[in-house]
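User
Take a look at the entry that follows and flag anything odd:
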Amino acid sequence: MTKKQLDWAVLAILAIGAGCGLVYEYLLSHYAGRILGAVEEAIYGIISVMMIFMGVGSFLARHIKNPFAGFAWLEVLLALIGTSSILLIGGVFALAALLPQILAETFSLPPDLIPRGGLVSNGEAIARWMPYVVAALLGTLIGMEIPLIGEIRSQIYADNLKNNPGAIYGIDYLGAGIGAILWVFLMLSLEVSLAGALTASVNLFIGAVFFYLFKDKIPSAPWLLLAHAVVALWVLQIFSYGSDWSAEMEDMLYRDKVVYRTNTRYQHLVITEQITDPAKPKVLTFFINGRNQFASNDEHIYHAMLTYPALAASARHDKILIIGGGDGLAVRDVLRWNPQQVTLLDLDSGLIELFKTPIIEKGKVVNQRLIAANQDAFNDKRVHTIFGDAFISIDALIREQQMFDTVIIDLPDPSHPDLNKLYSTRFYHKVFNVLAGDGAMVVQSTSPYHAKDTFISIGKTIKHADFKHVQQYHHNVPSFGEWGFTIATKNGLSAKQRLQDLSTLKVNDGWITRPLMLAAFEFGKDYYQHADEIKVNRLGSMVAYQYHRADWKKEMGLYKQ
């Protein structure tokens, strides 16, 4: 090959390697967000750690005397650590989760004396730091690639002046950009260990191509080839069994037996089951990214409190809008009111498919109970589904001048910056524009006990969006604890006054009573005493997100005295 051809081959290898590095960065941050729970901290923390240690790797690369051998070995190490990272992190978390049980069995402790502090706390701390340790290691290795390629190009041309750094950084950025595109549109919905193995196989491939091009410059070639073969066999094992290994380790993080799991483009979905009474059906619990969404034995309480007050406070029930609620359980309750049309706006089509279309595995419909739970609501001809970001998709409803008699907002808590906008004055003003004048809007508003500041802020934000009457209520849901809701009307009487004026309840859902609804509006003495100090959440202010983050940190005991 000519020097020019050899140089282009090296740049192509660099571009592919940059794409792999970007995928590792996203893969690790995505997985860390799932298992650590604090999604935004994990994602941004992992990316920050990797970028810092990429700089460290760049400095360390100058100590490698033979850049050809260094780069060849670097790709093998990246493949090994990249494909092993998910299993390593998952294994440490599983061990930390099992440690209390191991200690209790070893020392014959009763169930109410399961160890929590000391060694157990240290194990949990190590587990929570493990994603960052792996990120630092991968970042260091990735950071070595550009300096080594620069040195290699200098030796190809035997002239530093012809080794244009602009070409190196340009091709690196292009490769990283392509890696990001592949992650978003292809690999995001893959099982994480499979995505890691795919990326590692690409590292091995470009390492093999590089070795073929420069084998005469690489000493100890037999050892390098042996390393390639061993790592390739390991990657093949991950391809074949990694998903099962990862699933088994993930199962240890859940209290109950995991019976189904899947990845959508946006979320990781898990279903567990538990026997509480042999005479009754097993209790199913549904998790999104590790967070409890509902339990089959008490979800009717949550959804009754979410839907019934707003529907009862609305003058008509012909057209209902539900924002979120991809499990179809709110749709089920709304259909009891015999509406003409129910429009559901949700981001994740994969989530809705899980609760709509039978999934057959080994001759068995694995999601039969989920479809039964919402009484096949998504296949009702009156239900129309729109997929997209609610903040943007609702604009189409406004342009079409659609009006809804009741709006029910059942979104996740504002635990991520991307969710903050869906709790902003701007968003609630958009909802205001599609709500009928004599209708009511209700918003799931997190826990008034565990996240008090967030709860109050949501109420104040809705009030700031021009709603005439805004009130808050709460109820205990065993799976969640004390949970809160905010209800608002545009004109006329407040929702509470409308409920007080009811002589009968139009629909019998098996749970709601008029006194129960009215009692839910009562809070303890001085609950709103400091409400004036709570801020309104405007678009871009991140107020709801910051309150939620601070509230749950205090609740989890993460703030030190």
